[in-house]
Structure formats: structure tokens, C-alpha cells
Design goal:
Elements: E1 2-5, E2 9-12, E3 21-23, H1 28-34, E4 39-41, E5 47-51, H2 52-59, H3 65-80, E6 84-85, E7 90-96
Parallel strand pairs: 1-3, 3-7
Antiparallel strand pairs: 1-2, 4-5, 5-7, 6-7
């Protein structure tokens, strides 16, 4: 799954739990501002911290019980790699250009 930023912010390919990134073409600071508090710049280049509750919200109707369980599994894997900021409830996503 990935978060796309265009006129709005959307969660694309929400059933793909094997990848997670943010598709940004341009300025990272402007992209962070577009998230209106749901994202923050990471200390690592080409990464953002994304609010986990925001991802669940973006999933919308796709976020049934099965989706939630698979997303929780993805987050557990991310946590094992150090990609979760537990106090802030955020997951780290790499940035890549759209397309």
C-alpha cells in the first residue's frame, strides 16, 4: 500500500501489506504540510513518520476486520525493524516518486 498526495491524500493498493511508502513528487516539506499534522519528517533522508490512526482512516471501507488484522501484522513487522515510533503512534514510510 502507499499514500498518494495529489489534490487529496489517498491510500492506494490498501490490500498490499508487503510495502508501505508515500508517493511524493516534489518538496517534502510541502508534503508534510499537506498531511495537516498526520506526518512528520524523519531524521532519515527520504522517509516520513505517518500517524497510524491516519492510515486506518484513509483505508475507509477497506478497513474491515481482516484488513485490520493484516495491517497489525504489517505494523508488527515494521516494529521489529525499528520503523515504529510507539510514543507518537507513527510508522516510518519511505518516500518515492509517484508512478
Amino acid at each position: 500500500m502507499f499514500i498518494a498526495i495529489a489534490d487529496t491524500i489517498t491510500l492506494e493498493d490498501p490490500g498490499n501489506f508487503r510495502e508501505f511508502h508515500v508517493a511524493i513528487d516534489g518538496d517534502v516539506a510541502a508534503a508534510v504540510a499537506a498531511f495537516d499534522g498526520a506526518a512528520a519528517a524523519s531524521e532519515r533522508d527520504n522517509h516520513l513518520w505517518i500517524d497510524i490512526a491516519f492510515v486506518r482512516e484513509l483505508a475507509g471501507d477497506a478497513a474491515d476486520a481482516e484488513w485490520q488484522a493484516q495491517f497489525d501484522g504489517m505494523l508488527a513487522y515494521a516494529n521489529s525493524k525499528g520503523w515504529i515510533d510507539e510514543p507518537a503512534n507513527r510508522v516510518e514510510a519511505h518516500i518515492q516518486p509517484p508512478g
